[in-house]
Description:
The protein has helices at 40-43, 62-71, 121-125; strands at residues 3-15, 21-29, 32-38, 47-54, 76-83, 95-96, 106-112, 115-119, 162-165, 168-180, 185-189, 199-204. By secondary structure, the chain is mainly beta. The strands form 3 sheets. The protein has a 6-stranded antiparallel beta barrel with strand order 1-2-11-10-7-12. A 4-stranded antiparallel beta sheet has the order 5-4-3-6. It has a two-stranded antiparallel ribbon with strand order 8-9. It starts with a strand and ends in a 7-residue tail after the last strand.
Amino acid sequence: xxxxxxxxxGMTQIFTEEGSVVPVTVIEAGPExxxxxxxVETDGYNAVQVGYEDQKPQRVxxxxxxxxxxxxxxxxxxxxxxxxxxxxxxxxxxEITVADFEEGxxxxxxxxxxxKGTQGNIKRHGHHRGPMSxxxxxxxxxxxxxxxxxxxxxxxxxxxxxxxxxxxxxVQNVVLVKVxxxxxxxMIKGALPxxxxxxxxxxxxxxxxxx
Length: 211
């Protein structure tokens, strides 16, 4: 199962053997532990539930405390579930680390983008501004939103000012440049969604994996 939970540390750059600079995002990924194995016979589908980052027991409610005790693992802060083809290959308590990933493979990384609050149509959708000359009353306004007499209403889905950011974003086919197993670090080429310390889900690329 090529999947991991991790935290975004930040960005830096590394140099290849040829001397080229590569911008990378550093992720502290895992280790994560299998807390539950779901199969078609017991749950109707195959999946593996994993826990990441230890949590103080007093900050976990009783049902989840019992869930972790049944699995025989310490209480975790984050839980995630990943679909697999055959859940029988995994065992409760099994540990998954960055060592399961190979340098050069392609990944899909999912995170929550930075929240930017309420923004105007120019920043949110990239609309053009109006004339900036003296006397202009249409500098950063939204402009015409609908026709006049007919249909005399604004259509649904019209691009307008509003909340921007804090969305679930997946970046596909990014390259794993380097793995530092003893420090649980992954260096992935390019920028990834989210703020520093934000939770990300990493898995082997679905579409662009080299055969």
